[in-house]
Design a protein that fits this description.
By secondary structure, the protein is an all-alpha fold. It is built from six helices and no strands. It is elongated.
Length: 182
Amino acid sequence: MADKKHDIVTKYLADMAALEGHIYQAIDKQVKATEDEMDVNPVLRSIRDGLERHTDSLKKRIDALGGQATSPLKDAGASILGIAAGVIDKLRAEEVSKDFRDDYTALSLSNISYVMLITTAIACDDRETADLAAKNLKENAQFVMDIGGLIPYVVVRDLKDLTDLNENAVQEAREIYSNAWK
């Protein structure tokens, strides 16, 4: 791979590792906050563990290409994002559904970023990076689908203090979500 192509792929890999690392940190906090909630915690643990594998594999690929996973600027950005996330966590009501909504959004950003990485790697003749990104994308796409199927249940659970809720809301919302993807 030519030097310029190599540098571009390495930069995209580093960006991807940083993004997945940020998402991992947020979901890891949610795993700890929901330890007693056996209806949602296993899903969060699965996503967190997957993101940890992704971050590790991306960093290994960066190392194999002779690059660096982080830079001082990215580290500063990560610190600022972490502080902002902490403030938001303190301000937000304890609604798990909103956390899942944010996870869905973050994973969707990760998914389109993987598509960009795959395209860049293929364009730069780096099949190994493209294959790694495709594998991680497939797992993240499943995480998004898992969250999408779980959201109706979690929303209704968050509304537990209301009376006269429609008993069919969870099933009907799941069907509507599922049908949107067909």
